[in-house]
Amino acid sequence: MMWICYIIMIVVPYLLGGINTSIIATRVRSGKDIRDMGSGNAGLTNTLRTQGKAVAGVVLLGDVAKAVLSIWAVRLAFLFIGGVDTTVLSNEMNWVGYMAGLMVVVGHVLPVYSGFRGGKGVLAAISAIFTLDWRTGCLLLGVFIVLVAITRYVSLGSVAASSLYFVGTLVFVYFIDKDPSGIVCTFIALFTEAIVIFKHHGNIRRLLTHTEKKLGEKSK
What we know:
Blueprint: H1 2-17, H2 21-30, H3 44-51, H4 53-80, H5 95-109, H6 122-132, H7 134-151, H8 154-162, H9 165-176, H10 182-199, H11 201-208
Helix pairs in contact: 1-4, 1-5, 2-4, 3-4, 4-5, 4-6, 5-6, 5-10, 6-7, 7-8, 7-9, 9-10
């Protein structure tokens, strides 16, 4: 029955991740496509700039919920269908949660429901990271908050924080927890952060040319 669990691990987080609350909420509020507005990104920051705080709040809750639900749905599938508790490190299956987190991000970035045009995966990723390991989550969130507070560039904070996912997982999960599957978790974290950083290539270019919008600046 384990093969069913592995299918669930890939398919369920991807499909849940593809439910883009930014696209849905903007469509409901204004009848427009968020991807044709502002920066063109179907994510929290662009929603805040173009739709306001109330709609952005819906997006925040939606992205957090789909990441948390995806990981726990997969963990419960392995527990009740496969008979394996993936949260017990000695079972050497902790990587399953990390793979579910990766697939949530893939679904958010490349949603099958929206022509494979999604967001950049930051909020989905950090929500998954907190679900998997609160210490790494706190590290990344702390870096994000400090950089955004100093520079007012959300993209800079996002890229810098994302680049530490690999490091945080390596330190906390592999070295401190001595998780037998820690090295696998670390490489999954590396791949996840690579996706998020790649999706910010436009922001990185604008940061280098000093044309990136700061937090609080409105988009049409």
